[in-house]
Amino acid sequence: MAGSGAIRVSPKPERVWALLAVLAGIATILIEIPAALLSEGGYSFAQQPISHLGMTGCGDWGDVGTPIEVCSPAHPFVNGVSIISGSMLAIIAFIWHDWIAPGHWGRCGSFLLAAGGMLLAGTGMVPADIDPTLHAVFGFGGSAIQNLGLIAAGIALIRWPEKRWIGPVEFGGLTLGLGVFGLAGALLLATPENWNLPDGIVERAASYPFLIWFILAGWMQLRDASRRKRELASGS
Predict the structure, then answer these.
(1) What is the CA radius of gyration of the chain?
(2) pTM metric for this prediction
(3) How many whole angstroms separate alpha carbon 180 and alpha carbon 22?
(4) Which of 1-5, 69-73, 88-92, 222-226 has the lowest mean pLDDT?
(5) How far apart are CA 160 and CA 90, in angstroms?
(6) Where are the domains of the chain?
(7) Which parts of the chain fold into alpha helices (H)?
(8) At 61, which helix (H) or strand (E)?
(9) How far is residue 30 from each of residues 4, 77, 80, 114, 193, measured CA to CA in Å?
(10) Residue 167 carries which DSSP code?
């Protein structure tokens, strides 16, 4: 039951959804490391976008004047993780709508985060060398929607009377900050190419806040579930 000042949590098994959120977020970030190490011709996290790790073919990619050699033997794993993790996070975002905060802002944040997860899955389904335009739509649209979802969730958490803290930081403010930071990164993705911004850094600034939020939110639920279990055990 939920009354004034109470926080409803995700349905049982609560800890399963939380653990899946943590694992999905971590896997999506960490899969880049072995994929980059296996890339033929080298890979730059600063200069090359994540999509290069998911390309199915090998060859030069980019502008005629400055082509980049791309060859990622680990592309099935990168794309597979994006599809599975994105789908999983979309489902979890719907399940967490009351945990974020009951009300319009919480439902809006939940819906946008779920849509962002689906678009993340779309980037794995359509690699950049298969359909560059559709992949770009999924990638840029996903980054924008994911971070708008974080902003809506942050507003909902801040407005909700029962505050949640992660260490010394209030979680609503942290969520809002991640969303603003990620949205700024998403806007930089649309800047002209002659600005010569580091593509890898900008893309990760746009996409990582969404994944980091799920890792932190899942960890908070695991922490709170363990705390309640200890309190019940000590009170019995």
Answers:
(1) 19
(2) 0.90
(3) 22
(4) 1-5
(5) 23
(6) 14-235
(7) 14-30, 32-38, 75-95, 97-100, 104-125, 132-159, 171-188, 199-235
(8) strand 59-61
(9) 40, 11, 13, 21, 28
(10) T
Question: 177-186 b/e with 16+ CB inside 10 Å = b?
Answer: ebbebbbebb
Place of tokens 């880049």: 32
- Dihedral over alpha carbons 72, 49, 19, 212 (to 10 degrees): 160
Averaged pLDDT, 119-136: 96
Pick the range with the lowest mean pLDDT from 19-28, 92-101, 169-178. 92-101
10 DSSP 8-state letter: P
Among candidate residues 97, 204, 116, 206, the one with its CA nearest the CA of residue 156: 97
| DSSP assignment of 198-221 | -HHHHHHHHHHHHHHHHHHHHHHH
Please write the tens of the pLDDT for every residue from 58-69.
Answer: 988 875 457 788
30: which DSSP letter?
Answer: H
Confidence grade of residue 4 (pLDDT, cut at 50, 70, 90): very low
Who has greater pLDDT, 221 or 148? 148
Q: Could you give the CA distance from residue 138 to residue 115 in angstroms, rounded to a whole number?
A: 11
pLDDT of residue 5: 39
Yes or no: say if 118 and 86 are a contact pair by the CB < 8 Å rule: yes
